[in-house]
Write a structure and sequence with these properties.
There is one protein chain. The protein has one domain (22-163): Tetracycline Repressor, domain 2 (Orthogonal Bundle). Helices cover 75% and strands 0% of the residues. It has helices at 3-10, 14-20, 24-47, 52-69, 71-78, 84-87, 95-104, 112-132, 141-163.
């Protein structure tokens, strides 16, 4: 969307936008940064929960709630972009540390990255599909998401018990 269109939708003049943002890219960068900070804040409570399974449920709840309450911002924050590394270095990802810390208490070290990726991908994919209206589970979507997380964790626990 061009700056002129953004200005029109905001009810301001295009030149006034340039007073605050040098370019369309600068405006988008600012929106992405703000969205990341908001998402990190929403997930911050999850990081303080002592039980690892409950952390993953709270992470999923916060992620889905953010997506549902901010669909355009969620899409902007999670969309691939050519300048992602400049805006959002992987090391600053708010979800990564939360998921990794919880998963490190539940899985073997060699399984940490792949399983954390699966859980995060499931939460992200679920949120994206819900927003797109492509995956309307029966009942409460949050309960369905929790059930999926529990199935993964229960399967991992059963595998660990079978090994020992």
């Amino acid at each position: 969307m061009a700056m002129r269109e953004v200005a029109r939708r905001l009810g301001v003049s295009a030149p006034s936008l340039y007073f605050h943002f040098a370019s369309r890219e600068a405006l988008v960068d600012s929106l992405i940064r703000d969205g990341i900070e908001e998402l990190a804040g929403a997930m911050g409570e999850a990081a303080r929960i002592p039980d690892a399974r409950a952390v993953l449920h709270a992470f999923a709840d916060a992620y889905l709630r953010f997506a549902r309450h901010n669909p355009q911002l969620f899409s902007l924050v999670s969309a691939p972009a050519a300048n992602d590394e400049r805006i959002f270095p992987a090391a600053e990802n708010p979800a990564g540390p939360i998921v990794l810390a919880a998963m490190s208490r539940l899985v073997r070290e060699e399984d940490l990255i792949p399983i954390a990726g699966v859980v995060w991908s499931m939460v992200h994919g679920f949120s994206t599909l819900i927003l797109a209206g492509r995956f309307p589970p029966p009942g409460d979507p949050t309960e369905a998401l929790h059930r999926g997380i529990d199935l993964i964790l229960d399967g991992l626990a059963a595998e660990t018990n079978d090994v020992h």
